[in-house]
Design a protein that fits this description.
- Helix content is about 5%, strand content about 60%.
- The protein has 3 domains: about 90 residues, Phage tail protein beta-alpha-beta fold; about 80 residues, Sandwich (Immunoglobulin-like), CATH 2.60.40; about 525 residues, Beta Barrel (Maltoporin, Chain A).
- A hairpin with a 5-residue loop joins strand 28 and strand 29.
- The chain has a 22-stranded antiparallel barrel. A 6-stranded mixed β-sheet has the order 13-14-19-20-17-18, with helices on one face.
- By secondary structure, it is mainly β.
Amino acid sequence: MKRLIILFAVMLCVANAFAQKFSYRFNHTPLADALTQIARQHPDLHINFIYNELDKYPVTATIRTNDAYEALRQLIGLNPVSVIRSGGRFYIEALQHGKFIYHGRAVGSDNMPVAAATIMLLAPKDSAVITYGIADAEGRFSIPCDRRNVIAKLSCTGYITTYRSCQNFNCGTIVMPIHAVALSQVNVEAKTAAVYPDKTVFIPTARQKNASQTGADLIEHIGIPQLKVSISGNISTNSGSPVGIFIDFIPASSDDLKAMRISDVRRVEYYQNPTDPRMQGYSFAVNYVMAKYEYGGYVKGMGVGNLLSYSEQLLGIVRLQNKKMTYDLMGYGFNSDHEHNGSEFTETYRLPQPDGDIKTFDRYSKTTSSKYSHQQYFAAFIATYNSDNVQASTRINGSIDRRPDDRSGTVMYTPADYPASDYSSTLFNSSKFISYNGSYFFSLPKSNTITFTPQYMYSHTRRNSSYLENGYAPILNNATDNTNLFRADLKYSHDFGRYGSILTLIRGIYEYNRTRYNGSVESLDKAKTSRIGVGANYSISVGSFRGTVGFGWDWDRLQFGDLTDKPSAPWFDLSLQYSIKQKHSLSTVFHYSTWAPDPSYKSRNVISATPLLSYTGNPALVPDKSYDLGLFYSWYPNNNYSFSAFATTWIMGDRYVFDYEASPTGILRTIKQPLGSFSQTNYGVSATLRFLNRNLVFTGQISHSLNHNGTPYNINHSYVDWYARIRYYLNDWNFALTYISDQGKPDGSINGVWVKSKSDWYITIGWANSNWNLKANIIDMTRWNWRGDRRTMRSKYYDTVEQVYNGSSHALIQIYVTYTFGFGKKVTRDNEPGVSGSAASGILK
């Protein structure tokens, strides 16, 4: 770690040596404040101006130059302000003066801002020009004037000249109709992807948005090479890492992506190790930038039905906005019923006997009948306030979830030391939760920001199970858990201009689990987990290079019953990114952190699963260590081709892991720490190719995974998987054929289970117009059995081989229908509501 810190420090020194003297980024900053910042950081630069004259002009500019005069001209832009250089001094003076300020915003008929529009203020009597102003990148203008009751004349190339009588100083939003002009055919192709040091920006086409029902669909149609989207809509990186989802920088869930209005998406931004405090520390993030509106709203409904393996889902959202406030109300319902859940489960026992021998036998159980259902209902309300300097979001979520699962089957033993018999089992899981999630961002003067993200969740969980096998006593396990979770992050950031930016943070977590067991085991478990952490990140951008280094410390308090541990550990982040001509991106990342164990792993109770197998927890568990290393490359030569390559490694140290202890009468699954390390390496390439005016699109990926699972399993796996998709667009229709190879992966790091899934192929047919969007997935129509994943585990005393039965690989037809109805002048932001996940229960399982 010392070498990494020294290396990064050397790189910073080299970067600063080649840094340009004036390097700034301003976003809607008052010109007077921007000049004050430059003057303060360059005391040798003598800048003279009157603050009160210039604070009315907002500037949005990126400055990178070594010349002081050029830096000031880049800053002022089109504002009516003069720059005079006399000797070593610079005089900045407003060309307009007046005791009144007329302000407003110019937008086109498509509700997009009209940047650089000319606004002339005319005398009502003779239309003489009194003064003028220029709109900024957001269409906003602010013009000093000494006259009342003027006429505003707005003009810009491509728009019809528009007049507005200004009875007061707030001119409001002025719509300039687009000027349709008959031109000779001109082929102009805008870039749909651009690489920057801190992000990659994708501009979706109208065809891609029209074909998409959800935000996840849009990523799939864009073909972002660093990301992949599962058929269920889950978004991850090519290497399988989780991706944070944001809509206008407000956290979003998969349900938010279903509820969003796709036609409002202006661009999609992909971040690796973002420094924006609103990104909540995600290593990878996607942000949807939405169109801005004045007032109005929309209604959207979505229905999903699965045929052959029955399930149905209904989602609806209503959005209303008044000025800077947006209100959303969303409801969701899901129901699934089928009778094909089950497994063929072979267990191999090697039990040491008192005489020193090892008794080896197999226990084979098979499900012969089952009935499973799943019902989930939730509602969400969200209120959002947006202004130039404040973004505040408050959401309240509530959910009810019920999952009864009844099975019966047969049990046989080889050799037949135990008699064959029948069994029946019942399992009922239910949960209710309510949560509050806040996201509050404040942009302060002088390039400072504060971000506060509080969270509270309460969940009530019940898990009741019974197992009856002929010849043995019934096994009854009932558990009820109540969990309270508090979480809050407070972040402060400051931008030093060409010297980089710093982010400091303090975070706190408190979780209290109260779990009562009854049935075969009677007990009450109380677990309290808390963490206080502090840290800082420093980031610097020099030309096309960006580097970030972060360091902090976490203090944990883990209390289970009368046992208390107080571990503490540092965390460290390092990322380097380099972009070339907005076409190439090369980056590397390293993370080190610790993770507190789930409270459910700390129970002392011994729970019986079958007459021969029981399991327990370990109250002495402490956080394990996690090391992540990644290397990523992307290339966008033009709008028709894009490529991505990646290599990642994840290593766990001080791992807590399931271990199986044998006795003459059976197996007890315990949790021990520390045991052997766990590592996973994944590398591969992906590409998107477009032909026939981008109507024909090929997408594919191939990757190789290496997995090591140390003591007590001591096993290595190697696996190659790939997928390919061909899609064709025909007017309002789109057709796709997708093949996904079989895959192998570990079932987490705490156990030794290796999961092998089947290959899948499916045909997608979609049609859409401005309001309706219909899609059908025809999946695995050549496979009519209910066999799903195959799960294997080998250990010293106990092995398992399980063939799972469900509908995951059975022939399936999915129907998706969405209808969206908009009204008013579109809303300001699409920060859609969604249900946050409930707090994890403390029930041992």
